Fold each of these.
Amino acid sequence: MRGTITLVVLSVVGLCSATAAHAACSGTNGRGWGSGNGAGKFEMTTKDKACNISFPGFIDDVRKTRTPATEVTVTRAPKSGTVAVVAGKGLVYTPGPGFKGQDKFCTRNTSAKVKGKSLRGCITVTVR
């Protein structure tokens, strides 16, 4: 029983720290990345300054694992901001000065741990 309680506490602590790491915006990478139709949606305010976005991941339903696709090629740059790839962390979208509205960028993601496969899609960030 003690092991189960410890596991639950660690899971909750991990969830809280993951949420804090992405406090600058909210949203999800969405679905469809494996078929080339990924559709992420995030929202932020101008006060947030930047939006931290996790890497999409390869899902293995048999092993119940997720492998982040950390090797990123931006295939369509955002029109009203910039996107940077931060090794081991994810993507960081930064809107241009004074920008409010929707901005979209697209990526192709791979992982050395998953040979011969890629994830593709676009992410729309709404700045309010």
Amino acid sequence: MIEELVGRVFAARNIAHLQHLTTTSYAQHKHLGDFYEDVVKALDELVECYQGQLAPLGDVEIMTPEVGDIAAYLREEGDWIESNRDEIAGDSQSVASLVDALVCVYTRTVYKLERLQ
């Protein structure tokens, strides 16, 4: 499950970075820039903790879907992470807390994209 999480987060980062580079909205440019920087830091901390407590990371596959509405896509991805929290974290409270922090990166970005234009 951790491998799927990593693949999905990397895909979201790539999509956000591409939209960051091509948007004509300054606000969206800034919000997506914050997202792709923050999400990598949050994921890195989570995976390092996961590997220290649970198991090494296996093979990761990154698929990049077509995305029309970036805010809706990030909301869906954040919801997926949150709904799989327990399976990702296993019995580790520290990993669970880091999963929650990762979800916050998504929800904070959705808020900014939808409300701070």
Amino acid sequence: MVTLGIIGVVAAMTMPVLISNYQKTVYSNQAKKTYSMLSQALTLSVEKYGWKPACYYWYPSTCKPHSCVRYSSDGKSCLEYQMADGSPLASDVCGSTAGCKDFESIFLSNLKVIKTCKNKAYDNGCIPKYSGLDDIIKEGNENISDEDFNKKLVGQGGYASSALMNQSSAYVLASGEILMNYSGMSLPRIIIFDVNGKKGPNKWGYDVFAMHTATKSSTDDSFFFVGNSMVQKGGVDLNKIITNRE
């Protein structure tokens, strides 16, 4: 009886861990599947477009030196950037957006979208409630000062919870995934995706991920997705998942 009792205690302790690991494996496999689907759509869209669109970030991620010179009243958003020499922000400071608007419609045409919410995606029923970067920053450091909090969020306001709920467009696919853009930016320069739609846990690094289009040079044909590192506690970076390093 004692032995059976010990076995029962050990099982009770290990089962939650086994279940958690199994769920993470399921999410990782779904993330790989969605990444592959979107990468195929990207390739087909380039073929239809005729050439690589000017809609990407540089890879490796190297922005030309610039800084914020004017902030919003709450300090959370940058209203104006300048180049290091004081000149206005260059259009290609971190890549290019010139071809994004035209390319977006082609990209979406290669996906089976069954519902679209152009704004207020949460209120209009396209997405569940997600934590934003602002929530994640506070989860990791509840005592963070307002100044340090704003420094971590500035330049990434599109990942704040209010922006995700109210500013991002959302697209529900027939296969169940949800796609979102970054604060109104044309897809697929930055694309946020939920691998299992409204089903839980709806957490970054579990079933919710983000990635962006990238190129090694404006003069070559390289054009691919790179994962963005926004992860809640216990989650996994998308780049590790797609390279089997999770």
